[in-house]
């Protein structure tokens, strides 16, 4: 168990496409330890998701999960994830990123997606996700392609520091952004 150092925006590792894991690598102690350490790191910094490039590992792997009554994301480890939108519905909502600390902005994302990946046991998984979990999966998968949420914003009008977000935006979030 270890808390890993999180790369911040500007570090080239966040802009480099990550490589796929060979299925035979998934069960190795190094990859299993990395997954455990990524969960520890995500929890330490109160993240909802964390992708391997954010901890300086150029691998197509992310972890996610949060147990919040308003926005639950089941714990997951996704290896070599492939995400396809289902339908054309897109919603804008707030996102943040451990690599862009204390900043929030509204990002358009597909409302419903289909995901295929390997889990941490090397088993192939396929499922659909919608709403907040779908948003998190899209954000984390973007990290594997060197894409940050800022790149996805339609405009920077909503870009805000966390203090100002809490002061001016948080209470208005639900009504405005869940439509
Ligand atoms: Ni992020």
What is the annotated CATH architecture?
Alpha-Beta Complex
* Spatial sequence of strands, sheet with the most strands: 1-2-3-6-7
Which percent bin holds the helix content? 25-40%
Percentage of β-strand residues: 25-35%
Class by SSE composition: alpha+beta
Query: Strand tally, please?
Result: 8
Ranges where pLDDT stays below 50 over 5 or more residues in a row are 175-179
What overall form do the CA principal axes indicate? globular
User: Distance N terminus to C terminus?
Assistant: 40 Å
Q: What gyration radius follows from the Cα positions, in whole Å?
A: 16 Å
Instruction: Quote the average pLDDT.
Output: 94
Overall description:
The chain contains 6 helices and 8 strands. By secondary structure, the chain is α+β, with helices and mostly antiparallel strands. It has a single domain (12-178), classed as Peptide deformylase (Peptide Deformylase, Alpha-Beta Complex). The strands form 2 sheets. It has a 5-stranded antiparallel beta sheet, sandwiched between helices. A 3-stranded antiparallel beta sheet has the order 4-5-8. The longest helix has 16 residues, at 29-44. It is globular and about 50 Å long. The N and C termini lie far apart (40 Å). 31% of the residues are buried. Mean pLDDT is 94; it is low at 175-179. Nickel (II) ion (NI) is lined by residues 97-99, 139, 143. Nickel (II) ion is lined by residues 97-99, 139, 143.
């Amino acid at each position: 168990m270890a808390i890993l150092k999180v790369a911040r925006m500007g570090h080239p590792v966040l802009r480099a496409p990550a490589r796929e894991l060979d299925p035979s690598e998934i069960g190795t102690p190094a990859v299993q330890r990395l997954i455990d350490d990524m969960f520890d790191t995500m929890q330490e910094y109160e993240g909802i998701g964390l992708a391997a490039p954010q901890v300086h590992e150029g691998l197509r792997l992310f972890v996610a999960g949060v147990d919040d009554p308003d926005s639950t994301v089941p714990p997951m480890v996704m290896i070599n994830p492939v995400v396809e939108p289902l339908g054309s519905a897109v919603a804008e909502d707030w996102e943040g990123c451990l690599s862009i600390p204390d900043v929030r902005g509204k990002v358009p994302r597909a409302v419903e997606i289909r995901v295929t990946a390997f889990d941490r046991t090397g088993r192939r998984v396929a499922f659909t996700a919608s709403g907040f979990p779908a948003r998190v999966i899209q954000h984390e998968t973007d990290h594997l392609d060197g894409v940050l949420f800022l790149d996805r914003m339609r405009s920077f009008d909503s870009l805000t520091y966390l203090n100002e977000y809490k002061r001016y935006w948080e209470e208005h979030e639900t009504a405005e952004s869940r439509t």
